[in-house]
């Protein structure tokens, strides 16, 4: 059946988080949940071609994964105690928290518990909820795969040892817990927006969609939280450009070259409304609100020449006061190039060489600035580095073509 591989891929995209969350709730063990879910999908790969795709793939996978988990507990000779605990947990009525009851949201808050370091919370949730592989997560963090694998394993062990509860915090505890969750959702969205896996679609709509869905849930919980509103606006304004970001040839299309008529006007309107609502409060904005405002400036311009670059630079100046990361400095330099020219921007970019040496966007930016300064050989060398470190197939195709065009011009 030729449609079975596609059905399995679709089920993995749509059901992985649900299956893992369901098992985590029942068995209280993330290792069991993850491994049983993986075994269920492996079973689907083996059986669906012969038996056919079940009418409800998610239910089939959840049932199969539950059986795999119970089988594992039996094999480990721990069934009596472990399974009794699982049955008790499964039989408990829903907690009267007065907040949204969503198993995936519960799992996110478990993975983002304050007992874990922030980067560990993000990495664990990308794995358990987003279904990203360890190599994908390692690239998102710019670290080695072995380092990331160890970090995730230690996090799961700490959750188990500390008996961190699997639940959404009570309403009064939500504000202090939400920052780690927002960081998770932002990285999940970014991985979908510019996927780094070599065997994945360049844009993973299921990840951006899930990140937006969960952010909407948190916004419903905390409608007055500026950063929740800012992140939702940022996601919507970014997602609005999705269909214009990949060409028919499968290449990434930079912002300045996109067909703005193809942008989603409804998402842009919603994102702009959220940005304006936060501005009206007069409360000093946080990181996500400023980034949303930057995107509002870009999506307000009918064509790239109408972009208010002075406003973009002013927003990045404001952002650098609360976020001194080199990536923010890099993005500010890109805007500075439009105001003060490529030479001024290149000096700022070169100061980031040590911290961003393995970050592909750093080399992409240098290549463009060097090209604009007429330094073709150096630009080509920077493009070589950009291709080496880029993980997105559409971006690699675009950068390779730009490098070839630079060669042809010499």
UniProtKB/TrEMBL annotation:
A GO molecular-function annotation: DNA binding
Domain of life from the UniProt record: Bacteria
GO terms, biological process: DNA-templated transcription initiation
SUPFAM superfamilies (alphabetical): Sigma2 domain of RNA polymerase sigma factors (SSF88946), Sigma3 and sigma4 domains of RNA polymerase sigma factors (SSF88659), TPR-like (SSF48452)
Domain (DUF6596): residue spans on this chain: 177-277
The keyword Transcription appears for this protein: yes
InterPro entries attached to this UniProt entry: DUF6596, RNA_pol_sigma-70_dom, RNA_pol_sigma70_r2, RNA_pol_sigma70_r4_t2, RNA_pol_sigma_r2, RNA_pol_sigma_r3/r4-like, TPR-like_helical_dom_sf, WH-like_DNA-bd_sf
Keywords (A to Z) from UniProt: Sigma factor, Transcription, Transcription regulation
RNA polymerase sigma factor 70 region 4 type domain sequence ranges: 108-158
Domain RNA polymerase sigma-70 region, first and last residues per copy: 17-78
The family this protein is said to belong to: Belongs to the sigma-70 factor family. ECF subfamily.
Matching PANTHER family: BLL6612 PROTEIN, BLL6612 PROTEIN-RELATED
Name of the protein in its database record: RNA polymerase sigma-70 factor (ECF subfamily)
Organism: Kribbella sandramycini
